[in-house]
């Protein structure tokens, strides 16, 4: 049972919200190479509460991928040899069987590479899609891939990257000690935690505190909802969204001056 | 009590996803005649699990209706004489009292006809709207009506028709035997089954397996969410929706390259 | 404990759906002054069932505010001296700390004024945003502010104003007597009542019955979803929405002929 992991590594799993690849400034397509390693690791949900997360590259959400329409993306997935389960990656920027899930299925210690062409713009989810994928996503295996249109995106002063998902454990929120995954709670849609970037205090003074801008600056937020069950109603306190790409679609109209935008969970 | 129906008829109630009326190829309006019979019938939710469904024409979702802006639709509803309850039809393509519900209220053995003019384009829900309508909808009485704009819809290689709804029963999912409707579970929004086309295995190798297209072909999905309680977050695995008409509205912009689109339940 | 309020005042708290400020007919900006008093008052949810509501100006939703892009809004909030708690106002039409919450925090008996400039059009939520804001919103402290674009809104024959929110009490729906607030039920998202304009029978023959229009007339509905937890799927029975401003955004496209539109809860 992987929840009884012998190594208690309480390193932070929360992704840094400023870890966004730079805007694309190319006039022609290229090949973008992405390497990710899947991990199963114990980390703290909040001080004193541990869980055996699964992740892409040891952070939640997994690394943000950025490419351009017309690019080829060469995706390499390694399943860390210390892991106990198979993993793979399903990217919603991929048109093909399981969004790449079949081509990237890796056993512990194994590595696989596949290439896809980005044919449509948008901000899309990626996630592990093995059987029992809900368990893997709820444990942290999701992230976002941005496919910029050929003309690029309007310049902004800051870009941030956030991922919401929910954790279902056998314990109660705040209960000290190690929590195991609770399949029954997931089925009943009764999460123990609903988290941004995988930890209770991921963003702010007790976590990553870099999400700061000056008055008059602009910022773009890349927001991915991993689920597995909940959708999100996203509102910036003390402001509105100047422009929203509904459901991450970049190829069509923006909605302007939106106080709260619904973000459906990434899959289903 | 209709749940104690003496006739155990385990015929399939799942609608065929390819049962879509042909695209409209007319330059002028006409009168479209639609006849439906309401049924109360025992069928299997999954092997060994039965339920006394209610339906339009014995299938879930009910037959898809297709007309054009400017058409007159002559709607005839017959309540099968073997039934135990009144039924009617409320079409969201109708602007008028109860969307036609008042004009079509029929007792068992009765037939009624009413005519309406389609004045706006879109994909709309229809459903039974007698008192206790939640019970009737949850038992299967919903479907879709498509009103094409005068210019028609872009041609596609395939069209499919799917309906989501949830069933609330006194049993647990998978529990063998006959299940009765559970009003308390409906009020608590704790469905026993969330179904596509009315059965657990409606679509696929153990059900209707016609939902197949070739690489390079295009397909349009008409998706109706009967509810009565749940909304849907609809994502095509291994792809995105090239074009979405948000909430079925055809008279305004499409959203492009959408991985997951929210489909609110059809009524409320 | 404020739920044990000694004064049992069973006055109606339901706001009149026709209480909409007149359309703006100005070519230049002005200063709009708004005064509101916060109240804590016992009223009936339905006959025989009382609750200690909190409100802006003694009604739910709070008074609708109407201004134009470019206007300055001078907002004065008084906390009635008979109250037991601090209150404030967070308006989603305000770009600034807490949407005005910090500037308007008032203790019982206190008054504060602040001014903001309306810089973007739309229909926005306002709400109390003190700590434990969910409790205050669920008790009735929410409303809407409309910022018209400079060109105004198309003329209509009628305008209506409705607010949805949910109440979490220690009793069951319909249970006679005084109900206290139930924090556990709110956390579990199991409301006792989901209400339009704050009462079970707010609109209709047993409440405000003014929401009537003639065949052929047009009407615009300003719909605010206070939450604190539930989103809404809004459908006009026997009709569709000719034009919807998705999520209240007026600065971008309308969606046309929409049977059901999702309204996310106003905050979070
Ligand atoms: Cu996995
Ligand atoms: Cu997926
Ligand atoms: Cu019926
Ligand atoms: Cu209806
Ligand atoms: Cu308050
Ligand atoms: Cu707010
Ligand atoms: Na990497
Ligand atoms: Na738990
Ligand atoms: Na028929
Ligand atoms: Na059940
Ligand atoms: Na006032
Ligand atoms: Na209760
Ligand atoms: Zn994985
Ligand atoms: Zn940091
Ligand atoms: Zn800066
Ligand atoms: Zn749009
Ligand atoms: Zn078939
Ligand atoms: Zn084909
Ligand atoms: Zn307040
Ligand atoms: Zn009245
Ligand atoms: Zn009138």
* Percentage of residues in DSSP E strands of chain A: 35-45%
Quaternary structure: homotrimer
Give the ligands present.
Answer: copper (II) ion, sodium ion, zinc ion
Helix fraction of chain A, binned, reads under 10%
- CATH class category of chain A: Mainly Beta
The name of the CATH topology of chain A is Immunoglobulin-like
User: How many discrete domains of chain A?
Assistant: 1
| Count of strand segments of chain A | 16
| Rg of Cα set of chain A | 18 Å
What is the 3D shape of chain A? Answer: globular
Question: What number is the mean pLDDT of chain A?
Answer: 92
Q: Which structural class best describes the helix and strand composition of chain A? A: mainly beta
The CATH architecture of chain A can be named as Sandwich
Task: Give me the secondary-structure topology.
Three copies of one chain form a homotrimer.
Chain A: E1 31-46, E2 49-56, E3 62-68, E4 72-79, E5 90-91, E6 111-117, E7 122-127, H1 133-138, E8 142-148, E9 158-167, E10 177-179, H2 183-187, E11 193-196, E12 219-227, E13 232-234, E14 241-244, E15 255-258, E16 261-263
Parallel strand pairs in A: 1-4, 2-10, 3-8, 9-12
Antiparallel strand pairs in A: 1-2, 4-6, 5-7, 7-8, 9-11, 13-16, 14-15
Bound molecules: copper (II) ion (CU) (6 copies), sodium ion (NA) (6 copies) and zinc ion (9 copies).
One zinc ion (ZN) is lined by residues 157-158, 213-214, 217 of chain A.
Please, could you describe this protein's structure?
The structure is a homotrimer of 268-residue chains. Chain A is mainly β. The first copy, chain A, has one domain: Cupredoxins -  blue copper proteins (Immunoglobulin-like, Sandwich), CATH 2.60.40.420. Helices cover 4% and strands 38% of the residues of chain A. The first copy, chain A, has two helices and 16 strands. Chain A has helices at 133-138, 183-187; strands spanning 31-46, 49-56, 62-68, 72-79, 90-91, 111-117, 122-127, 142-148, 158-167, 177-179, 193-196, 219-227, 232-234, 241-244, 255-258, 261-263. In chain A, the strands form five sheets. Chain A has a five-stranded mixed sheet with strand order 6-4-1-2-10, with no helix packed on it. In chain A, a hairpin with a 2-residue loop joins strand 1 and strand 2. The longest helix of chain A has 6 residues, at 133-138. The first copy, chain A, is globular, with a radius of gyration of 18 Å. The two termini of chain A are 27 Å apart. Chains in contact: A-B, A-C, B-C. Chain A binds chain B through residues 90, 92, 94-99, 101, 120-122, 124-125, 231, 246-253, 262, 264-268, and chain B through 233-235, 237-240, 242, 244, 246, 253-262. Bound molecules: copper (II) ion (CU) (6 copies), sodium ion (6 copies) and zinc ion (9 copies). One copper (II) ion (CU) binds at residues 90, 92, 99, 127, 129, 267 of chain C. One zinc ion (ZN) sits between chains A (246, 253, 255) and B (246, 253, 255).
């Amino acid at each position: 049972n992987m929840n009884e992991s012998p190594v208690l590594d309480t390193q932070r799993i929360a992704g840094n919200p400023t870890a966004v690849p730079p805007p694309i400034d190319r006039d022609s397509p290229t090949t973008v190479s992405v390497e990710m390693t899947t991990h199963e690791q114990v980390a703290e949900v909040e001080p004193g509460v541990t869980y055996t997360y699964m992740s892409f590259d040891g952070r939640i959400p997994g690394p943000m991928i950025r490419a351009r329409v017309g690019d080829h993306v060469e995706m390499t997935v390694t399943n860390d040899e210390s892991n106990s389960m198979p993993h793979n990656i399903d990217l919603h920027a991929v048109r093909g069987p399981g969004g790449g899930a079949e081509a990237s299925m890796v056993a512990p210690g194994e590595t696989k590479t596949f290439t896809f062409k980005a044919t449509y713009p948008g901000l899309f989810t990626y996630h592990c899609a093995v059987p029992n994928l809900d368990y893997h996503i709820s444990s942290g295996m999701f992230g976002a891939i941005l496919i910029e249109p050929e003309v690029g995106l309007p310049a902004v002063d800051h870009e941030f990257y956030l991922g919401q998902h929910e954790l279902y454990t056998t314990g109660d929120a705040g209960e000290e000690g190690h929590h195991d995954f609770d399949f029954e709670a997931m089925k009943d849609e009764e999460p123990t935690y609903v988290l941004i970037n995988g930890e209770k205090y991921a963003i702010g003074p007790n976590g990553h505190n870099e999400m700061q801008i000056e008055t008059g600056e602009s910022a773009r937020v890349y927001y991915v909802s991993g689920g597995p069950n909940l959708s999100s109603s996203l509102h910036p306190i003390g402001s509105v969204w100047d422009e929203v790409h509904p459901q991450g679609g970049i190829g069509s109209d923006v909605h302007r001056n939106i106080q709260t935008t619904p973000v459906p969970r990434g899959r289903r």
